[in-house]
Amino acid sequence: MVLGFLVLLVYWLAGEAVSQWIGWPIPGNVVGLVLLWVTLTIIRKVPKPVAEASKMLIRYLTLLFVPAGVGLIEHWDRLMSNGHWMLLIIAASTALSALAMVGIFHLFRVKNT
Amino acid sequence: MSVSIDLLLAISMTLGIYLLAEQLYRRAGRSALVHPVIVSIFSIMGLITLLGWDYPQYQRDTQMIHFLLGPATVALAVPLHENMALIRKMAMPLLVACFTGALVAAGSAVILSDLITGDDVLSLSMSGKSITTPIAIGMVENVGGSGSLAAGLVLLTGAIGTLMLPTLMRFCKLDDHALYGYVLGLTAHGFGTAQAFEKSAICGAFAGLSMSLTGVVTAFLVPPLVPFWMTGF
What we know:
The structure holds 2 protein chains of 2 kinds. Chain A is mostly helical.
């Protein structure tokens, strides 16, 4: 468990270093995700400590972003003045991207899997 | 070892409210409207207002919880690796659909928000609305938006997506469970994935896969493109 956690931290560290080194504005933890994914693809299995640590973190993933979500309190004025537009923009954008995907399925004649 | 009372109170409050919200969610039949994150966030907002705390103080006190988002995001590589086997048969069309969907989801939201509201922080934060929250927070902060606002927009997108997508996809006659799940996961991340698992296991697995894939694709492609989607940049 602790070993698995250490592996995740080291990949995050490596991701952060790569992200700063190439100067591309990608979060270091996402680069770390990709590095770990590549590693898992190469070794073709998930080592037990990594599987355990990631299962635990993902199980409580939603709890982890509660503190950031509470920060919405600082955007109260924005929600009050533009809230209706936010709903409309999100609905429109969701429909557009879903329709674009359906379009791609038709283009490639993907009917079923 | 002495730690400030406020810090202990902030962490206990956050964990306690979250556990209560999870119970409520279970009792209410797992409706997206009482999602534990939404209930927790609004309850804590109410409590810190009552206690007379300010957000920066609460943010500092709960830094320990927030920090775990880093390793948790890296951990998403495990389910992604396990689910990739699903699309081996038709990887090409599904990857093209993911890239297209991710770019349309982010681009249309940023452009529409920029044109309609003219609020730069809001428009920049819209770039992460369709991706899973842990990735959205980091990416949006990198492009100059607000991580907290992004978290709110992501939750809103999840709720709206699960309400409108079933009808929209019925209208498009998309009834294959795998493809349907793939669309749900891309547009409505974790909320969509939860809904997809209620339909069938294969639907849920494809939703989970497209959710993680979209997060990665968006985090890599969108930040350098965002300036081109905004006027006055």
